[in-house]
Amino acid sequence: MIVENSRLIDLLSEEQKTDLSSLEKQFAHHLEYTIGKSKYTIKNEDIYKALGHTVRDFLIDRLNITNERYRKEDPKKIFYFSLEFLMGRTLMNALINLGLYDLVKQMIGGFGFKLEEVLEFEMDAGLGNGGLGRLAACFLDSMATLNIPGFGYGIRYDYGIFNQIIANGAQVEMPDHWDADGVPYEVIRPDVTYSVGFFGYTETKVSGKGKLQHYWIPDETVLASAHDCPIPGFNTSTVNYLRLWTAKSSEEFNLDYFNHGDYMKAVQDKSISENISKVLYPNDTTEQGKLLRLKQQYFMVCASLQDIIQNHKQTHSGLENLSDKIAIQLNDTHPSIGIAELMRILIDLEDWSWEKAWDLTIRIFSYTNHTVLPEALETWKVSLIEKLLPRHLEIIYEINHRFLESIRSSGKLSDFEIGEVSIIAEGAEKRIRMANLAVVGSNKVNGVAALHSDLITKTIFRSFYKIFPEKFNNKTNGITPRRWLIQSNPGLSELICKKIGGSFATDLSRLRDLEKFVDDADFRNDWANVKQANKDNLAKLIKSDTGIVIDPASMIDVQVKRFHEYKRQLLNVLRVIALYRRIKENPNLQITSRTVIFGGKAAPGYYMAKLIIKLINNVAWMVNHDKDVDGRLKVVFLPNYRVSLAERIIPGTNLSEQISTAGTEASGTSNMKFMLNGALTIGTLDGANVEMLEEVGEENIYIFGLKTEEVFALKEKGYDPGDYIRKNEELHRVLLMIRENYFSMNEPGVFSPIYDSLFYTDSYLLAADFTAYDEMQRKIAQDFRNQDVWTKKAILNVARAGKFSTDRTIREYAEDIWKVPLLPMMEPKTKYKLA
């Protein structure tokens, strides 16, 4: 049960309780007529599909009521533009938010099945890479829960983030056809279709009024067709939607080619058009890959803006009040071509003046930045945009010209600084800086943690900050407690609920009430039992997925996230090797038993990240098969890390690794998920770790390593990692083990690039932070031996996690950026009847 005894909220109304028989009839109808099954052939998978269609009926009813309310009240609407939405599994989340979980569990049990097993048949909708896409998903949940008319726009990729398998220790990418068996809760909208143009040329004519008029004549047209994923709020009848576009050819295959026997040519154009929505992040190491990625970006914003404008015109006479009725949030730079597209619509199609169009555009768009790394800022070759979007290039040049003229006349910047803020990067091959376009074309620019927001005004956007200090603000990221506590950790949710009631589900700050129970021995014992049950479940998962048997009583030490050198999974495994060496040198060494778990995917073209994954797996094999270790240390790489796997790992974790080089992580959100589930954190003062320290207190978090300013100072002075390595004999020996093929006897030299990178470059200062990291890990091992004190710290981490809810984040966006009020909680005027 998600809720027992003292409930989180009265998830089941009296009317819903009496609707069990009606729900059963609706479910049985879908099982027989939608799925086509009789009672003699039913399997878990059939139950899942029928349940999905039943819940879909419920969602559509509330969605229609919500849309009718919006039509009548005409509130300002928020549109979240993102090329990534890492939704994970949807059905269980919908059941919880709709208040149907208990009722459905009872109903499914009546059919002789277990709901927990049925829900396992849902595939993760992995339409994103990591934190950026998961944040977008959490934001949609919070907007619906807060009754904000907020909608997501993205692409319905046929293949999401790849499935990862490990072969000979190395990552191998396999296609992720996440919707192969259909998506029962999805609402297909064939009537919502728009044309999107590419390539072609532009023409300029003088109109009858003597005005210069621009025309874009595309050579290629693709259709964007809408698929909606309903997003129910928690404890409210509001249901918003995520609208995802899929690409369709504007024409079917060429029958003339077909009739003449050229079958491949007959469907070639159709296939090329529909490639746009095939794969999340096509490999952009080739020109064709870059072209496809840019196509995806424009495809999404073009269709979305057409949809927004058409819907607006249905209830308003024109676009003059558009900025009063909509706001668009750009999730990173990927959708920033939308700024040029809206200008094209207003100038070329609506016949507005430049000044009027630009004023409206700036008031509509806002931009969220997700990186402090200059190399991560997106740029495109001018020649590529000129080829694919010729009219948009003209508009971007005009935006840049007018912007730079105004800056020159203001005298605020030097010539060098003017070059920094220019949207066009000069050089042997000119490039469009999409981040600069996003800053210039938005009314607000925000970072995603206090440290990050401060850093961008001092580094990548320092010259912009001189011009527009009022544009920049901070919106610290969060997570939705509905998925990351109530859904993923029902045992802890129920324990908390018994003590403080269920209001924390929509007001996470209420968790502070737990502090009064930290000295209650019975409560601490119950807390420890919940944690141990979650660790036991994790141990079963590890054995099932990898065959590795771990000790559930050991410290579960976890680093799960996208693989990147700045996130420093390599620092973690270097320390694992050091610990392994200590055991080998002293087989009788008494240490705190530890299970170190890694998980995450490396981009297919990211050689070094993939090599680190292989090193981790090779080290794991060596450690786990060494009898000298005797179970005191286990290393596990859980393959194919995804949302549903995170939901099972995080509740069973004791120690969360958040060890990026200070000044490189924008925020992080896994750090918040672990904190909310009672894990303690070892981390640097980077991203949101800074604010976590402020909330929880230095005695309840393990902070180590160089601070951001120290990192910058060390690099400016001239950092030589060899100096640090030579001074630390243990680190030096660890690196020699890697260089001398201790973990790669059958593949000599395979890890030499790791040794060379650390000894001669070490861009992310692992050598400089290794000693501090190792010392802090020794302290953690000592602290873990006193389980009662450890549990107290865990309780305080959860009690002080209230700030890190996306409900708080979205309230700040609504107040400071979007200028939109929260609507009162909505109850439908007509109750949904299931039969």
Automatic annotation (TrEMBL):
**MF annotations from Gene Ontology:** glycogen phosphorylase activity; pyridoxal phosphate binding
In this chain, where does the modification N6-(pyridoxal phosphate)lysine occur?
K673
Origin superkingdom: Bacteria
Which EC class does it fall in? transferase
Cofactor(s) of this protein: pyridoxal 5'-phosphate
Under catalytic activity, the entry for this protein gives: [(1->4)-alpha-D-glucosyl](n) + phosphate = [(1->4)-alpha-D-glucosyl](n-1) + alpha-D-glucose 1-phosphate
**E.C. number, please?**
2.4.1.1
Give any Gene Ontology cellular component: cytoplasm
Q: Could you tell me which InterPro entries the record lists for this protein?
A: Glycg_phsphrylas, Glyco_trans_35, Pyridoxal_P_attach_site
In Gene Ontology terms, what is a biological process of this protein? glycogen catabolic process
Q: Name the UniProt key words of this record, in alphabetical order.
A: Carbohydrate metabolism, Glycogen metabolism, Glycosyltransferase, Pyridoxal phosphate, Transferase
Q: Please state which protein family the record places this protein in.
A: Belongs to the glycogen phosphorylase family.
**NCBIfam families assigned:** P_ylase
* Record function comment: Phosphorylase is an important allosteric enzyme in carbohydrate metabolism. Enzymes from different sources differ in their regulatory mechanisms and in their natural substrates. However, all known phosphorylases share catalytic and structural properties.
Q: What is this protein called?
A: Alpha-1,4 glucan phosphorylase
The organism of origin for this protein: Leptospira idonii
